[in-house]
Amino acid sequence: MHDDRSITEHRLRRVLKERVKPAVHSRAVPLTVERWEAPGEPVPVAEGLAAAYGPCAVGDPWGPAWGTTWFKVTGTVPADWAGRTVEAVLDLGFDRMMPGFQCEGLVHGADGGEVKALNPYNDWVRVADRAEGGEQVEWYVEAASNPVLVDHAATYEGDLATSGDQPLYRLARMELTVFETEVWELVQDLEVLYDLMTQLDGGDARRHEILRALGAALDALDLGDVPGTAPAARGCLAGVLAAPANASAHRISAVGHAHIDSAWLWPLRETVRKVSRTASNMVGLMDRHPEFVFAMSQAQQLDWIKTYRPELFERIKKKIADGQFVPVGGMWVESDTNMVGGEAMARQFLYGKKFFLDEFGIDTQNVWLPDSFGYTAAMPQIVKLSGSRWFLTQKICWSQTNAFPHHTFWWEGIDGTRVFTHFPPVDTYNSDLGGAQLAHAARNYREKGRGSRSLVPFGWGDGGGGPTREHLARARRQRDLEGSPRVAIERPDAFFEKARAEYADAPVWAGELYLELHRGTYTSQAKTKQGNRRSESLLREAELWAATAAVRVAGYAYPYEDLERIWKTVLLHQFHDILPGSSIAWVHREARETYAAVGEELQGITLAAQQALAGQGTAELVFNCAPHARRGVPAGGAGRPAAAGEPVTVEERHGGGHILANGRLLVEIDGRGLIVSVYDLEARREAIAPGSAANLLQIHPDFPNMWDAWDIDEFYRNRVTDLVELDRLEVTESGPQSATVRVTRSFGRSEAVQQITLRAGATTVDIVTEVDWHETEKFLKAAFPLDVKAERTASETQFGHVYRATHTNTSWEAAKFEICAHRWIHAEEPGWGVALLNDSTYGHDVTRDVRADGGQTTTVRLSLLRAPRYPDPETDQGSHTLRFSIAPGAGIGDAVREGHALNLPERVVGGAGPVAPLVAVDEDAVVVEAVKLAEDRSGDVIVRLYESRGGRVRATLTADFPLSAAVESDLLERPLAGAAVGVPTPEGRVPLTLRPFQIVTVRLHRR
């Protein structure tokens, strides 16, 4: 037989595009359209309905960037359409090649009720399943003219304050039509079979069988009467659609999904509308398709619907009760996991799962994080302690260098906890359920022979509207179809139960899930990161002192509502495009304003509690919120500090510069203002590599191949400029309590002023760097070449630390050329090490080199600032204050202690006398992470603590208040069957036994 495959395939593509699809909506009559431009920000629906509308016509331009245009649409169903299915097509000017990231609309009825959302692949509205003729149509379309910002070009359209006022869209189609059901079904038949056929091997008989059936269907179709001949064409396809799948066919659990970033290329206020539009369509789809299951993560997004669209929220609650609408994720938002602090990560689950429990009575079991930029090794334990069982991610498929070896596996965290994890082999969280994607999932699945199933999240994301009726039609046709994987729409937990049952002995991946991409997110938008770190620290302070005051001071009321509201605000801003710095300028401008307001409010709560505790008096009391004693003031207490130690001296250095000393450290700053020696007098060890200089600011070109704010490509290292030119070098403080050398440098269009300080009794050298930053596409780092032979470094992460190799033996190690650390990074050889501490820096890199003298230099660099131009062309421009320190001779315990001290400064309040800690722990390796009152308003005290050094430990927790019981709890403060907490003694002492990096939450019942 002659090979006519290409001819038939080409014929099908053209007929489908030019004849069949246009015939789905026939007999079109125009609707009458009027418009009203909402001034400024979006208005309530009642205001939109009551506005004065003016004339409008199809073809008219509309919508400046970030504007809202209301269209009033009216019409009458023709009488001769009686008995037909009638729909309106409302095309706002959509780009069909881009399902999200553009204009969107929400249709309201004349009574203000939601009718349906409008998106590029969802521009129809059902008028009548069986028209009577003469029906009146009156709708109001709330249309958002969001600018298209996906082309990776620098643009000022990303902020209302700098965007243009020219119309971005042109009204395309506003018509009443007859919906031709058989034609629509024919489109689904043809598309499913064509997509399946193209995925089959050229020698596969099934491919040729489908080809002949498609050819016969085209022959049966009269292009002059597509509606009339569609049933005959479908009849030619019935046989090939009925052939059952192979017994060994891959099994796909299809879960409806609409990935909606809580902010990204749009501001938070637009996400509020995006989620309402999408959820409105989903409950409507569920009404017509009882088999449809839709999963929605992010409690914040459902809370927005509850607040702004209460009628829609009630519809969602009913669908949740019916089992069709499925809350997943258990977190307040789909947060970043690399940079979020330990307690904040716990609160993501506390407030997320609590919302689902309070509103729906559902204790979510899975963690749904498809799009975050890598996953911390602390996550498995946090997941388990939240009461969750499963973990799902997708983003790891974006890694540039190494293909992740598993799709279904056990993920082991730093403490040894394992969580059953799935990484969908479809490699997208916005699947269209087309043949190409399903075939890719089956081919790509790495567990063949052991497992047989994978999960596919399907639906258009980021404002694209979620799943559509076309998706469901594909799923139906591929439920049991020869040549295709078997597709079943089902709930995520159903998939995980089946996957674990068939593959309980899945392989284990230990440690972080490092994304070999988007490494620049550890640094971009420094003020957002600084605001997050500062807010986390201030929340710790506010809760500690408020809890202490609530227990100790009569009449003091613990600010439950205020703290919960602030926590939720901070958690929202940890979303995986806000905290990483990859959102538009509008988002980060608002974030800076929000963090400032949060900081002011938290400092007010803290001061009120401290004043209540301090009482009336003139004594200067130092309040120590850090988890370790300092200057004689106990952790979590207040008192008069002890004497600091030997005074600090300053001398001129031979050859230029200055020498600072305090009896513990000897610090040399040369004539260039660089630190050339930090000598540990007790250990008689030099921290800085010979011939090198530390605190060396270095600048690199920064123009990655793509994803400007997200990425750092390794070739940035090929060019570097050491900033050694000096404007001024001066001693601004000369002891005895502290000495400071001020260094000023100019470079490019920027200036850096650094204050290098040594304090009496200190084992750290503190550096405050003020940068007036006006560079573009540049990367600023601070280098510390250490005289340490370190095969690995330790980086703080949530509730512990992770080790990473300093060598690049394999591609896996080489890919980690930029890494994330929280408050510290530590390099050590047996017996002696150095810690680098910071107050708001997350990005670091570590390299090693062997010197001519045979020694090894381990260079640790802090990533301070970047200047990408997309999506915010003014990223990081302006003034910054960054604090970091070097601690020679530090062990891991010292790094933990000093890292907290840097991030939790002492506060001085006048009062009557010392304040004893509310709770105390007698072992420095055990860090108290949080002290608060219980969420249930019982007055119980919640203490969360963890083992911080990676070893087993026994400790005693002492409560300084009458105690009736101590109960180990999960992150939601529910009793946990564990063995870490012993029975308290009459004196309020609670014995603890912790394994390495174990997190323990203790609920202390007050008498």
From TrEMBL:
UniProt keyword annotations, A-Z: Glycosidase, Hydrolase, Metal-binding
EC number: 3.2.1.24
One GO-annotated biological process of the protein: oligosaccharide catabolic process
Domain Glycoside hydrolase family 38 central: 516-595
Reactions listed under catalytic activity: Hydrolysis of terminal, non-reducing alpha-D-mannose residues in alpha-D-mannosides
Transmembrane segments: none
GO molecular function: alpha-mannosidase activity; carbohydrate binding; metal ion binding
UniProt cross-references to Pfam families, sorted A to Z: Alpha-mann_mid, Ams1-like_1st, Glyco_hydro38C2, Glyco_hydro_38C, Glyco_hydro_38N
Family classification: Belongs to the glycosyl hydrolase 38 family.
Protein name as it appears in the record: alpha-mannosidase
Organism: Streptomyces venezuelae
Lineage: Bacteria, Bacillati, Actinomycetota, Actinomycetes, Kitasatosporales
